[in-house]
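Q: What structure does this chain adopt?
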Amino acid sequence: MHIKTIFVSLLVSISFVLSLSSAGHATVKEVTIFPHAARVTETAKIHPQCGSNEKCRAAITLPPQADPESLIVSLPANSRIKIEDIQIKAVTRQDETRISELRKQLSKVKSDRKTLQAKLQALDVQLQFWQMQTKAKTKTVADADNLAAAIGRNVKKSSQEKFIIEAEIEKIDKQIKELQEGLNSATGSKETAWEATLTFAGFSQNEIAISYNYNLGGCGWLPLYRIEALPAENKVSFSWDAQLWQSSGVDWKQVQINLATLQPAVTVIPPDLPEWIIKKRVPRIYKSLREDSVMPRAAMEKRSSAVEENQDSAIEETVKTTYSVWSIGKKDVPAGSRQRLKIKDENWPADFLFLARPSLDKQAFVRAQVKLASSIEIPSGEALFLIDGAVLGKRNFAFAGAEGFLYFGTSPLISVTSSTLADKAGAKTVFQNKQTQLWQWSIEAKNSSGNNIKLRIEEPVPQARDERIRLLFKQNPEPLEKDHSKFIWVIEVPARQKVTIQNTIELEAPKDMDLDLGWRR
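A:
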C-alpha cells in the first residue's frame, strides 16, 4: 500500500510538471521597433496547475533573443489572483514549421557534402595508387605499353570524377552558406529559448487571459529617404520608407507595428551636480629631468599636488530626450527576411535660390528653404537626393522642426567670382602716427542659364577686437543684411547676364599696434 501511494504521487508530480510546460498558445499583438531592438507585447490564455501545496503555476515561453529581465506580465483587471513569483530558465527552442524545414534542408545538404567528401578521398587514393605504378618494373616493352595505357586511362577517369565532385562540393558549400545565413537571420543563431514559470497567489484552475511584454534583440529598422528638388514647382518631394527585420524565430502575422526613433533611456536616478570651482590658475613649471632628479622630495610632492589640483576632472554631458513613434498598422513580418514599408510620401513647400560664398569658391549651390505647417521629426538615415529627376547621390539626412534648409548640389551654369582690386597698407600722414589698410574687390555673378535666378551672396565681415581699430565700409549695392559675421546680398540675375558688386573696406589703427589682418591680406 505504501509503494502504491508513492507511485501515484510520482505520477501526479510528473503530470504536474508536464502540464506546467504546455502553456496556452501565445499571440504577438503589438511590436514597437527601435533602430536596434523592439518592445514586444503578447497575449496568451493559460491554465494554471495547482500542486498539493495549493500553489498554482503556469509557464510562458519567450524567444531566444528576448531579454528575460525585461519581462512584465499583466493580469486582467478583475482577476482575484496575483503573481507571486516569476522564475526564468533556458529551454530547448521549439521552431516553427518553416524554420524546422530550413534546419532539415541544412542537415541534408551537410550530409550530402560528407558523402561527396568520402568519394573525393577514395578518388585521391586511386590516383595515388596509379601514380605509384609508374615505378613498377616490366619485363617487355609490350608490358610497359600496356601498363602505361592502363595508368593513363585510370588517372584520366579518376581525375575527371574528382573535378566533377569538387565542383559539386563547391555548389553545396554555397548552399550551406545561404541556408545558414537564412537560419541565423530567422533565429539569431541561438538554440535555446526562455521559459518563465509564473507562480500565483490564490487558488484558481480556470483559464486566465494574460498579456506580457519584453525587450527583444536581433531586430530593428532603418529609415530610407528619397528627396527630390522641384524648383519650377516650388516644392520638395519627400518619400520615406522603412526597412525592418526580426529574428525571433516566429513569423509575426497581422501584428500592430510601431516604429520609434530611439530606445528610451533607462536611467532612473539623476546625476549629481558638479561643483563650480573658481580659483587662481597655478602655472605649470617644466624642468629638465636632471633638475627633477636633484629636486628635494618635499618640493617635488608640493609641485605634484599643485598640478593635480589644477587638473579638474572632465564633466561628461548626457543628453536624454523623448522619442517619436510612427504607427503603420497591422503587418506581416516574417522572421529572417527584410521588409520595406512606406511611411510617408508628401510634398513640402519650399523657396529656392542659389547660395554663393565667393571668398571660398566660385560655385553656386541650390538651396531650398522648407517651411511646414507644423513641426516634424525625421530620424537620421540615408537619403537619395535628386533635382528635376537627376540623381545627385546619397548622403545622411535628418530633420527636426517646421523650417530648415536643404541643399541640392551646384549648377555649372552659375558662377560667382571675387577679384581683388586693391590690397595695400600705408599711413595717412606722418604727424597722425596711424597705420591704414585698404581692401578693394569686386564680386561678379554670372548666369549662363536660360532662366532668371535668385542669388544669395555671403561675404565675411572683418571684426575688430580692439576699440582703437576703426573700420569703414563702402559697398555698391549695399548689403540686404549684415550681422556680426557676414554681409548678405540677395539679388536677381537675369538669364545670360552678369551682376557686379563693389566692396571697399578701410582700416585705421595706431601705428605701433601689431595687427593680425586675418586670412584676407
